[in-house]
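Ticket #4471: structure output looks truncated?

Reporter: J.K.
Steps to reproduce: submitted the chain below (124 residues) through the standard prediction queue, then opened the result file.
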Amino acid sequence: MIDKIKNLRRFFRLPYPKAAEPPLTVDKDTTYRVLEISERGILLAPKSNAPLQIGETLRGNIRFHDQHCEEIEGQVYRLDSRGVIIALSQGISPKYMMQEQIYVKNTFPVFFRYTIRENFKASH
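Returned output as attached by the reporter:
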């Protein structure tokens, strides 16, 4: 039981279906696809023409489906097979996290149910 508690994530992670991935714009010429968000981290799709390095600082705006923008800032924490993990020092507001969760759940119900169920199984 103690091991299960240690493995629980501190912040809920919201994965996006491909059709709903919001863009993160870091400057006028560089945009990354956001694969997953949480209040204190994001997962980005890697870009071969704009590679990121561990420890690199990243600052930009995520534009969501309703055109709302959240300014983020953080450092590249890890590079893995899923993409680039950014640990945020300035993250996404809890209020907006809830709005996005509702949007994904209502717009992509099958994706949401399957993804949440698979993530829950992996943590147990």
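Triage note (M.O.): checked the attachment and the full token line is present. The chain has three helices and seven strands.
Status: closed, working as intended.
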